[in-house]
Design a protein that fits this description.
Length: 334
C-alpha cells in the first residue's frame, strides 16, 4: 500500500498547491472565484502497486496423517516428475495392515469359490430331483393306464394288484416331490451362501483398498513436473498434517500478482493494460508486461479491500525467483 499512498500524497500536494495559488492570486481569498483559465488536475494515467512473483503453477505439500519421516529422496532445487515421491513416512505398521488385508481378501476369495461350488452341486442335485419327479409322474401315469386297461373280466386279485401299483407309483411321486423341495431349499441356501461370501469379499476388498490408500498416503508425491522450490523435511523428524513440507514450482512460466490494488482504483485497471515492472531483487532490470486478469472478489487485508491483478511478463529476466517483490506500474484508464 506504500506506493499507492505515495501517489495519493503527490496528487493531494499538487491539488493543494493549485488551491494555494488560486487563493493567493490577486483578487483571491476565501470568497474568490477560481480562475477559469486554469485547467482541472487530471487523474494520473499510471497506477503503482506492489506485487509478488509466482510460478505459473505451484503446490504446497504436506502429509495427510502424522508419522515419522523415513525417507526424503529429493533435495531442494531438484527437478521432479509428476507422481515422484518427495517425502516418505515410516510405513511399517501400514504395510502390515496391507498384508493382513491381502490375506483377508485371499480367504474371502476362497470362500466365494467354495460357495459357488456348493451352489453348483445344489443346482445339479435339484436338476436330478426334477428329473426324478418327471420319472415318478410317468410311473403314475403307466400304473393308472395299466389299471384302466384291465379287461372287464379281470379277477379281484388283478384289480387289487393294479390298485397297489398305482398307490406305489403315487407314493414314489410324492417322495420325489419331497426330494425336489429339499433340493430347491438346498439350492436357495447355497445361493444365499454365495451372496454372503461375495459380501465378505466386498468387505475384505474395501478393507484392502483403505489399507493401500493409507499406505500410499504416507508418501508425498509431486502433483506435476517441476522443481523442488523449498524442502523442510528431515529423516527422523515427525511430520504433522497442516504443515508445509515441500513446495513444488512449475517454472515453465512466471507471472506477477499484485498484493495491494485497493477498491478505490481497481476499476481503472483492465485486462490487456500495458505494465512496466521492476524487482527489488534485480536492481536496474525493467520488464514490460500485460494485465491478464483482475479479480472480481476483493479480500480484506489489514482493513483494506484489495484485489489481485495478474500480470504476464513479456520476458523473464535472469535470476527471477518465486515470491520476489515487484513494483508494478499500470497504464490505467480514467
Amino acid at each position: 500500500m506504500r506506493r499507492l499512498a505515495l501517489v495519493a500524497v503527490v496528487l493531494v500536494a499538487a491539488v493543494g498547491g493549485a488551491w494555494l495559488l488560486l487563493g493567493n492570486a490577486p483578487g483571491g481569498g476565501p470568497g474568490a472565484t477560481p480562475n477559469p483559465s486554469l485547467p482541472p488536475v487530471p487523474p494520473s494515467t499510471e497506477l503503482v502497486a506492489d506485487g509478488r512473483v509466482v510460478p505459473v503453477r505451484s503446490a504446497e505439500l504436506g502429509v495427510g496423517v502424522p508419522g515419522e519421516i523415513a525417507e526424503v529422496p529429493v533435495a531442494e532445487g531438484d527437478t521432479v516428475t509428476a507422481g515422484q515421491p518427495l517425502v516418505v513416512l515410516d510405513d511399517t505398521a501400514a504395510a502390515a495392515e496391507v498384508e493382513a488385508a491381502q490375506a483377508a481378501v485371499a480367504a474371502a476369495e476362497a470362500g466365494v469359490t467354495r460357495a459357488e461350488a456348493t451352489r453348483a452341486q445344489a443346482v445339479a442335485q435339484r436338476e436330478a430331483a426334477i428329473a426324478a419327479v418327471d420319472q415318478a409322474r410317468a410311473g403314475v401315469d403307466r400304473a393308472r393306464a395299466a389299471r384302466d386297461g384291465l379287461p372287464s373280466g379281470a379277477s379281484t386279485a388283478q384289480e387289487e394288484a393294479a390298485d397297489a401299483d398305482v398307490a406305489a407309483a403315487t407314493a414314489a411321486l410324492e417322495a420325489a416331490r419331497a426330494n425336489l423341495r429339499a433340493a430347491t431349499a438346498a439350492r436357495d441356501a447355497a445361493t444365499a451362501g454365495v451372496a454372503a461370501a461375495q459380501a465378505e469379499l466386498d468387505r475384505a476388498s474395501a478393507g484392502l483398498a483403505a489399507a493401500e490408500e493409507a499406505l500410499a498416503g504416507l508418501t508425498v508425491t509431486a502433483p506435476f513436473a517441476g522443481i523442488v522450490a523449498s524442502l523442510d523435511a528431515r529423516v527422523g523428524e515427525r511430520a504433522t498434517p497442516g504443515i508445509v513440507l515441500v513446495r513444488v514450482a512449475d517454472t515453465s512460466g512466471w507471472r506477477i500478482e499484485t498484493t495491494d490494488l485497493d477498491e478505490t482504483i481497481v476499476a481503472r485497471v483492465a485486462p490487456g493494460a500495458p505494465v512496466t515492472m521492476t524487482f527489488d531483487g534485480l536492481p536496474g532490470v525493467t520488464v514490460e508486461g500485460t494485465v491478464t486478469s483482475v479479480a472480481l472478489y476483493g479480500a480484506t487485508v489489514q482493513g483494506d479491500v484489495v484485489y489481485r491483478a495478474v500480470v504476464e511478463p513479456a520476458s523473464v529476466p535472469e535470476g527471477l525467483r518465486w515470491n520476489m517483490t515487484a513494483t508494478v506500474t499500470v497504464a490505467a484508464g480514467e
